[in-house]
């Protein structure tokens, strides 16, 4: 990515260029992972009527508005939506507070629906309704783009979600099964990166099986935490901050290969 390319981004524009603004490498890499999805979506959104479900602070919607015909963005976070409406709304882009389980749109209203890092926030009971609503809002021939963290890198066998806001996390097999129950055609991809970035991501997510399978159950029973475990939490490994000066969006790419090892999973779902 060139310096000129960086300037076209809105929220990302300052953050990518003013690297000193980032408080940690983990935070910076998380931002790049999230923004990579919007860059991937550009060709699908070009000239189309787009709906974003779960837009957060709106920086991704604003970026896609540069290529989309129009974009409507929803979120349940009312304060965030109000802020986006005040600062970002224009003739091509609007922000609406809404529930993804009851979309306030007519059938066949959009060419493209995107929802990045959202599906894992729905319970197994609510997820079918979420996908049914998205499919209902899509035109025939439309496409739904979703991303979600790859549970293969995040969870040990039998482990529940570590993020308390995640109701269920998916690997490429479980995600495919979920989506194939609702869409006629599915294409699964994954977000990968340079070896330096992948090593850092794996290290940040690294867990000790001994801690999870042995020490934590014992601590639950005894109601005590060993002093050393408390110290280990305080000493959580953090990557060298200099990584921020060496990594940008060009260090990430989307692939069809080795999905089990990818950082995030990308799903392209087609409505026939």
Structure commentary:
This protein is of the alpha/beta class. The protein has a single domain, classed as 3-Layer(aba) Sandwich (Rossmann fold). Helix content is 39%, strand content 20%. It is built from 11 helices and 8 strands. Helix 4 links the parallel strand 1 and strand 2. It is globular, with a radius of gyration of 20 Å. The N terminus is likely disordered.
Please give the structural blueprint.
Layout: H1 3-7, H2 11-17, H3 25-45, E1 49-53, H4 59-64, E2 70-75, H5 78-88, E3 93-97, E4 110-116, H6 127-137, E5 138-149, H7 151-154, H8 172-180, E6 185-193, H9 195-205, H10 209-222, H11 227-234, E7 252-255, E8 264-270
Parallel strand pairs: 1-2, 1-4, 2-3, 4-5
Antiparallel strand pairs: 5-8, 6-7, 6-8
Descriptive tags:
alpha/beta, 11 helices, eight-stranded mixed beta sheet, 272 residues, Rossmann fold
Could you tell me the CATH topology label.
Rossmann fold
Give the SSE string.
HHHEHEHEEHEHHEHHHEE
Computed structural class = alpha/beta
Q: What is the molecular shape?
A: globular
**CATH class identity:** Alpha Beta
Task: Return the CATH architecture.
Answer: 3-Layer(aba) Sandwich
In short:
It is built from 11 helices and 8 strands.
């Amino acid at each position: 990515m060139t310096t000129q390319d960086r300037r076209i981004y809105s929220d990302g524009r300052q953050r990518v260029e003013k690297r000193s603004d980032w408080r940690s490498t983990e935070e910076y890499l998380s931002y790049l992972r999230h923004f990579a999805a919007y860059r991937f979506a550009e060709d699908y959104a070009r000239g189309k009527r787009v709906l974003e479900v779960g837009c957060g602070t709106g920086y991704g919607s604003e970026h896609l508005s540069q290529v989309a015909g129009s974009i409507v963005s929803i979120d349940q976070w009312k304060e965030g939506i109000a802020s986006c409406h005040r600062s970002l709304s224009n003739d091509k882009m609007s922000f609406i507070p809404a529930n993804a389980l009851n979309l306030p749109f007519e059938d066949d209203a959009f060419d493209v629906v995107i929802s990045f890092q959202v599906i894992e926030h729905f319970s197994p009971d609510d997820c079918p309704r979420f996908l049914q609503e998205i499919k209902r809002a899509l035109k025939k021939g439309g496409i739904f783009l979703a991303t979600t963290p790859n549970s293969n890198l995040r969870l040990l066998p039998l482990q529940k979600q570590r993020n308390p806001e995640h109701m269920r996390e998916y690997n490429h097999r479980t995600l495919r099964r979920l989506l194939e129950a609702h869409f006629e055609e599915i294409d699964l991809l994954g977000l990968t990166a340079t070896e330096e970035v992948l090593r850092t991501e794996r290290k940040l997510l690294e867990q000790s099986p001994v801690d999870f399978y042995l020490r934590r159950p014992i601590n639950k029973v005894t109601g005590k935490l060993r002093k050393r475990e408390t110290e280990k939490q305080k000493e959580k490994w953090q990557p060298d901050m200099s990584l921020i000066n060496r990594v940008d969006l060009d260090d990430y790419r989307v692939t069809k290969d080795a999905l089990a090892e990818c950082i995030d999973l990308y799903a392209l779902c087609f409505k026939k």
